[in-house]
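User: Teach me something about this protein's shape.
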Amino acid sequence: MTGTTLRDRALLRISGEEARPFLQGLLTRDVVGLEPGGPRWGGLLTPQGKALFDFILWADGDDVLIDSEAGQADALAKRLALYRLRRKVVIAREEGLAVHWALEAEGKPLDPRLPALGHRWLAPADEGDASADFRAHRLPLGIFEGAAELGQDQTLWLETNAEELHGVDYDKGCYIGQENTARMHYRSKVNRRLVAVPLADADEKRQRAALPDMGLSVELRRVEDLDPATLPGWLADALAKQGAE
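Assistant: First, the predicted structure itself:
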């Protein structure tokens, strides 16, 4: 691997005196308590609780930096702008920083979804591109991201394994899609999960993304049809706990 920059990621800076309260009422994670060095993974959902955008949130003073899929950054900015109305909030691309990743990087934050993903941080871009290396490491761990893999406006947030990957706060107050997301959680109604299966076993009706280079198909499958032996350990453990409750 040469360099640590994830060139398939982009940063949006949300600033202004109302920036954090503005985001607090929209996103699945608590933004008011976001602190430097403590990134949080979250999402912006439809009113029905389906994933539209996922991202990692970073604190930069009172500003919030949104670490987003590069191909969706402009669409995310436009979506956020729809809700801004007359609030004192500025939404802009942050060109001076980039997202970086390495399996080992002493003193850098761990990925907030799963420690096994490695370390992630913000800094000016280097000359390399670690995007392919991170993707090759991420997918076998059963971690999905971006519009293609999650299924934009197709997959309920908790079906993306958002609870297990620390992508939702249940005590932060209202946000878009909160009602259905909370109902699923408290009634234990997460009956389908996003998983990776061998491409040879793909079911096009359940498929969110075909990944021929990895030999994988990302699919939304019923929990009762999943074989724990084929799942990443963190998800197998979570589903075993859910079944015991």
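Now, about its shape. Helices lie at 19-24, 73-84, 131-138, 146-150, 178-186, 233-244. The mean pLDDT is 95. If you'd like, I can walk through any region in more detail.
User: That's plenty for now, thanks!
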